[in-house]
Amino acid sequence: MFKWKDEFSVNIEAIDRQHQELFKIGNSLYEIISIKDGVDRYDEVVEILHRLMDYAKYHFDFEEKMMEENGYPKLQNHKRQHDSFIQKVKSIDEKDIDEKQRTIGMDLIIFIANWIENHILKTDMEYKEFMNDKGIY
Ligand SMILES: [Fe+2]
Ligand SMILES: [Fe+2]
């Protein structure tokens, strides 16, 4: 589901590491939801989901600070994308995960995986050259 590829690299070590960590947490979530033994794992699913959101927020803050400090011209639009992702995931009713654990969980994880992948490949990639030119690797 969350597979790291070289094309995801923005050529900035700290950011690549954080993106990989996001993939790692995403994979734990995927693994839990994929288990088909009928055991209720609601608490675990919500716990990992919260961990993912906390880490995403940490990573977004880190990126935004880097962009701000370096006068990156597309900061506002980039920040808007981060904010709307957080809003969207926050708006998911955790009770729905409880009742229809697998379907909602899978839909959610597919959304998260697609969003992260697209965001890195399009939006994050846009600052790669800009930051590298400033000596940030
Ligand atoms: Fe970003
Ligand atoms: Fe990012």
From TrEMBL:
Residues 12-128 form the Hemerythrin-like domain. PROSITE patterns: HEMERYTHRINS. Coiled coil: none annotated. InterPro entries: Haemerythrin_Fe_BS (IPR016131), Hemerythrin (IPR050669), Hemerythrin-like (IPR012312), Hemerythrin-like_sf (IPR035938), Hemerythrin_metal-bd (IPR012827). One of its GO terms (molecular function) is metal ion binding. Keywords: Iron, Metal-binding. Transmembrane segments: none annotated. Gene3D superfamilies: Hemerythrin-like (1.20.120.50). It holds the Pfam family Hemerythrin. Belongs to the hemerythrin family. This is Hemerythrin. It comes from Tepidimicrobium xylanilyticum.
